[in-house]
Structure formats: structure tokens, C-alpha cells
Design a protein that fits this description.
The protein is of the alpha/beta class. Helices cover about 50% and strands about 10% of the residues. It is built from 16 helices and eleven strands. It has helices at about 1-45, 50-55, 60-80, 85-95, 100-110, 125-135, 155-160, 185-190, 215-220, 235-250, 255-260, 275, 280-290, 300-305, 310-320, 365-390; strands at about 140, 145-150, 170, 195, 200-205, 225-230, 260, 270, 295-300, 330-335, 340. The strands form four sheets. Strands 3-5-2-6-9 form a five-stranded parallel sheet. It has a two-stranded antiparallel sheet with strand order 1-4. Helix 3 (about 60-80) runs antiparallel to helix 4 and helix 13 runs parallel beside helix 16 (about 365-390). The longest helix has about 45 residues, at about 1-45. The radius of gyration is 30 Å and the shape is globular. The chain binds 3'-phosphate-adenosine-5'-phosphate sulfate. 3'-phosphate-adenosine-5'-phosphate sulfate binds near residues 155 and 353.
Amino acid sequence: MLINIWFNNLSSRALAIALVLCVVVVYFSYSFNACLFASISRTLQKSNLRNFLAPLTVTRTDNATTTNNNNNNRNNNASNNSRGSGNNTSTTSSSNNNTHNTNFSSNYNINNISVDSPLTGHDGAPKYQLLRQQGLRPSRHLPDTLIIGVKKSGTRALLEFIRLHPDVRSAGSEVHFFDRHYQRGLRWYRHHMPYTIEGQITMEKTPSYFVTKEVPQRVYHMNTATKLLIVVRDPVTRAISDYTQAASKKTDMKRFEELAFVNGSYSVVDTNWGPIKIGVYARYLERWLLYFPLSQLLFISGERLIIDPAYEIGRVQDFLGLKRVVTEKHFYFNATKGFPCLFKSEARSTPHCLGKTKGRNHPHIDTNAIERLREFYRPFNNKFYQLTGINFAWP
Ligand SMILES: Nc1ncnc2c1ncn2[C@@H]1O[C@H](COP(=O)(O)OS(=O)(=O)O)[C@@H](OP(=O)(O)O)[C@H]1O
């Protein structure tokens, strides 16, 4: 009996102790978690990580909307300035950017949502912090304008020249989004774009876009109002330039004449050889014209870009609805290089020319081979003049 009472007392005391312990554990874990959350919240408030997270939940910023409107105005300006047919189509697509095309519309929203991480690294430079202090919000946007080609026609020169303009910012290297990295998505693409502020144009150049079959449709789906810049050059000189570049990377490269023709004679041109194939510009242009009106395309003469860069850059600025800021005073002719060079560029404030991979010496090519190639290209060139409405007068 005594033992029984003793056991009962013991178990109720153990129960009481266990209860007290539970209360203590719950209290401490609550206090600890509360401290932890308060500390995380303080850290987020202090750090830019908050800036990074917040826009992911926001659909659209006022700033972005303004930029969009601004771009539309620019599009309309350019449409009005440009020549050729299709102006109506262009105006329609510009003004309907946000409503008309479902596919495009959803993509365009991605463009304008500010999902950028804080301005760190290269573009987190003090100049951007200064802009932010002034109430401007630099952010990355999908390109409004693309230099789509043509390879070896002067695309790098065009980009270096036009980016002297304070309202043009470009991706430094070729991004190859529409031909190689399309599956990575527009978010990835936009991350490769530079920071811009309201009113600035975002530009990218990848010369292989012009000849890659899927690209016109993909660009169209990104933004039907995209402006397209195309540098073209006599296809024979272009083919030799293309060959010279390939030969510079390969020691045992066959001679140009052996590669450009089938069976060693000059009778049959090898149209499967890349450097020859790319020069049939009309064929590729037709694909682009299925998606874009001529008024959204600007053709730049590669030859004239060398002889008179200010003239061609003037046309580009007009086309983009920009004030003519880049003029002859920015260029000088470097006799050693044999090309126009810049007094200063976006990256450097001293006179300099394009790198040594631009403006290479071409090997001597048999004049009969050149004559045969000219004959081969003539009908395609004529077709190209007809499509563009411009006679480039290639020999
Ligand atoms: N200012 C200036 N300086 C140097 N080179 C100039 C310039 N303007 C046009 N060019 C011509 O540009 C040709 C190279 O074309 P791309 O830049 O389109 O080449 S690439 O496709 O990006 O590889 C390059 O071709 P090559 O002469 O065969 O090297 C040049 O003829």
C-alpha cells in the first residue's frame, strides 16, 4: 500500500517536471526564432538583396512603362523617316506592342520588368550609382535594335561607331542568343544586355543572325518592332575576307580557288561552301521580309562605311530617331591601317583603330576566279537591289 502511494507521487512529480520542461523548450525556441527572423529582416533591409527580390513579385514599374512609350515614339519617328514600303505595317506593329500579338506581348513584359540584381560589377560603377541617386533607375532591357549581319561586311566597325552616341548602349561581344542560345530564354538574353536609362537604345550585334533560318521568326516573337541593321559588301570581297579569317586559324587551309569551285575548274561554283553561300544575300533577305517590313530594315554599305563613315552613321542615327551626334569630327583616316579610325570611343578617350583582325591583308586570288564569281553573283545581286530598292553597284 505504502509502495503504491509512493509510486503515484513519483509519476505525478515526473509528469509535472516534464510539463515544465516542455514549456521552457517552447518558450526558448519561440524567442530564438523571433530573433532569427528579426535579424534576417534587418539584413535584407540593409543589403541590396531586397532590391533583387522585390521586383520579382512586382509586375511592372512606372519607369519601365515610360521607357516603353518612349521606345514606341522612337519607333514611329523612325518609321516616318525611313524609305521603302511597309510603313503602315510598321506603324501598326509599333503602336500595338502591348496588345496585339499575344506571344510578343508576354515576352515584352519580361523585357520591361525590372528583375535585375543590384548594380554590381562592371555596371555597378560609380556613374550608375550617381544616376540612381538622381532618381534614374538604370536597368537591362532586351535590344530594340540588332545588327544582324552580314558577316565580314563591317559589322564591328558599325557597332563601334554608332555606340559613340550617348543614347546607344550595346552588348560588347556577340551574344548569339537567337542562333545558339535560344533555349536559355529571354531572361538570359536580357542579362547579357548593358544597363540603360530611359531614352537609351539597347543594341546587340551577331552577324550570323542574318543567315540562320530560325532567327527572323524568333526576333519577331521577341519584339515585332525590332529595328534591323544590315551591313552588306560586295559578296566576292566578302567571301575572300571570310576565307582569310578561316585561313588565319588553320595552317593547312586549301587555296581559295580550290574551295570556291567544284572539280578544280572555274566552271561550277561551290554554292555549299559557307563563304560563297552567305553572299547570296537575296535568299536570306526574303526570309526576313516574311516577318518584318522593309521600313524596319536599314542597309548600310560596307564599302561606304570605309570611304565615308560619317555619312553612313548619319543615316543610322536618322533611322533610329537619334540626334546626329556622331559626325565626321569623330573619325580620322589612318594611312597605316588603311581604314577610318576613331579619335575616341566609348571605352577609350585616345585615338585608336579596330583590332588587327579587322582589315586583314587578303591573299592574291586568280583574276579569272574573281571574274567567274562576279558572274555567278550578278543575278542574285540584282535581286537584292530590287528587294532593297538600293543599287549597291557591286562590279
Ligand atoms: N574602320 C574599319 N577598320 C577595320 N575594318 C573595317 C573598318 N570598316 C570596315 N571594316 C571591314 O570590316 C571587315 C570585318 O567585318 P566584320 O566586323 O563584320 O567581321 S565579323 O563578321 O564580325 O568577323 C574587315 O574585313 P577584312 O578587311 O577582310 O578584315 C574590314 O574590311
